[in-house]
UniProtKB/TrEMBL annotation, chain A:
Protein name: Uncharacterized protein
Transmembrane region(s): 37-58, 78-98, 119-140, 160-184
UniProt keyword terms in alphabetical order: Membrane, Transmembrane, Transmembrane helix
Domain of life from the UniProt record: Bacteria
UniProtKB/TrEMBL annotation, chain B:
Residue intervals of the RNA polymerase sigma-70 region domain: 12-80
Listed name of the protein: Sigma-70 family RNA polymerase sigma factor
InterPro entries on file: RNA_pol_sigma-70-like, RNA_pol_sigma-70_dom, RNA_pol_sigma70_r2, RNA_pol_sigma70_r4_t2, RNA_pol_sigma_r2, RNA_pol_sigma_r3/r4-like, WH-like_DNA-bd_sf
Family affiliation: Belongs to the sigma-70 factor family. ECF subfamily.
Lineage top rank: taxon: Bacteria
Species this protein is from: Microcosmobacter mediterraneus
Length: 204, 164
């Protein structure tokens, strides 16, 4: 007999062996809290969206001692509509997630929702890195101690040290954020990505 | 109105709860996980229930939401401790039906099914439930032809697991 036919026979035989939950037990369950992956994605995404928005709003006033060039302020204001667009896209994508879709569509919609937040974070990281690098460079450049030092012993080596410091500090800042990001979502979405790949493979 | 909806839903689920148990049986390894997944599927079914139009049978709709929850939405709780492996005997056999060789074979089969990936398990579940390839393809979001091809591959895979 075919293996699955044997299994089917047993499966049907055990139809009445499952536990039976009472009306009250089921009633209690529908009022309990969900721990679905979508809920977690929503919570984490809201934190990310909120943090991004907070950073954008606070950015021009982070440190008044450092006089950032005017274009960075313009850039900051330009970022507001972009952030709002990301939040709008996230909301629209999130609303399309439905447990009654087919498996492939559901996974695709969840991944799409996540991708919006991924691009949002990427945008914030790149934007943050620019401001961070400019701020750091100007911080060095405006420091009387550094200027004096440079004026007396100005050499290309000193400038190189400053540039290298800025580059390394920026890279560390970006690296840290990306590491946290990939660790968090790598774990959270691993199963989802694996199943989506499998469904796509079946269709090939 | 909401109370009435709640009542209708709980009654329907009570009637068809075996479907949820079956999904849990294939996707979990112990009683705690089974209960956890059962609860999550119940929550997802309840959330989706107001949009249930009755275009499909309630049971068909349940398979879809149940599988979606097991494959996509359910997040295993790390705090859960594995208490026992699910074997056919968990759902006890009547002694007069007991056949040693067949029981051993079934044990191995259930174990092999548990080694399949999430999508393969869904195919097996729908197959065991006598769903046709049209319904299998619609539930998973693949074409009917591909569902058939994949089903054959799953059978081969099971054979390989059983006879390495």
């Amino acid at each position: 007999m075919d293996e699955l036919e044997l299994l089917k026979k047993d499966w049907k035989n055990k139809e009445n062996d499952y536990p039976t939950l009472s009306y009250d037990e089921i009633y209690k369950m529908i009022h309990s809290k969900s721990s679905s992956i979508v809920k977690w994605i929503f919570i984490i995404s809201m934190i990310e969206l909120g943090l991004g928005l907070l950073l954008a709003l606070l950015n021009p006033n982070i440190d008044t001692k450092i006089k950032l060039p005017d274009w960075t302020t313009t850039l900051t204001y330009l970022s507001y509509p972009i952030i709002l667009f990301f939040i709008y896209r996230f909301y629209i994508n999130y609303k399309t997630i439905s447990a009654t879709d087919n498996v492939k569509k559901l996974i695709a919609n969840i991944i799409k929702t996540r991708r919006t937040v991924k691009y949002y974070v990427l945008f914030n990281v790149v934007f943050g890195a620019i401001i961070f690098a400019v701020g750091l460079y100007l911080g060095f450049g405006n420091s009387p101690e550094v200027i004096e030092n440079l004026n007396t012993t100005a050499s290309s080596k000193k400038y190189l040290v400053i540039i290298a410091t800025v580059v390394i500090a920026t890279a560390l800042f970006v690296g840290l954020i990306l590491a946290i990001y990939y660790l968090l979502y790598g774990l959270l979405l691993r199963r989802l990505n694996r199943n989506y790949k499998e469904l796509k493979k079946i269709q090939q | 109105m909401n109370k009435e909806l709640e009542h209708n839903f709980v009654e329907l689920l009570k009637q068809h709860q075996n479907i949820v148990h079956k999904v849990c049986r294939l996707y979990t390894n112990n009683k705690d996980e089974h209960n956890d997944l059962f609860q999550e599927i119940t929550i997802q079914l309840w959330r989706a229930f107001p949009k249930f139009r009755g275009d499909s049978k309630f049971s068909t709709w349940m398979y879809r939401v149940g599988l979606n929850t097991a494959i996509t939405l359910y997040r295993k709780s790390k705090r859960r401790i594995k208490t026992y492996e699910l074997e056919p005997l968990q759902f006890k056999l009547k002694s007069d039906e007991y056949d040693d060789t067949e029981e051993e074979q079934l044990k191995a089969l259930y174990k092999a099914v548990h080694q399949l990936n999430d999508i393969e398990k869904a195919l097996v579940l729908l197959y065991l439930e006598d769903k046709d390839y049209r319904e299998i393809s619609e539930t998973l979001g693949i074409t009917e032809v591909n569902a058939r091809v994949k089903m054959n591959r799953v059978k081969t895979k099971l054979r390989t697991i059983l006879n390495p």
